[in-house]
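A common beginner's mistake is to predict each chain separately and then try to dock the pieces by hand. The better habit, illustrated here, is to supply every component at once so that their relative placement is modeled jointly.
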Amino acid sequence: MIRTDSRKCLRCSGCVGVCPRSALTLTEHGIVCDSRCNNCKICINFCPVGAIDLEIEGVRRHLPTKV
Ligand code: SF4
Ligand code: SF4
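With all components supplied together, the output reads:
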């Protein structure tokens, strides 16, 4: 999962268009990412103002958990 910095985001919708998994949506609160995200980072590299980054909690979810 990725997170966006709503203070930097220009609401240009560019990241929504480049996401190959259609995981991003532009809402009144800014860009929202859903579970279809596979952390490919295409949107991070695309964003012209560096408003997108990987979310630490999302990365942790992919690590093995002890039972
Ligand atoms: S590409 Fe960057 S500036 Fe444009 S909507 Fe996405 S996060 Fe915001
Ligand atoms: S990291 Fe990849 S899959 Fe996730 S929102 Fe960005 S472009 Fe889409």
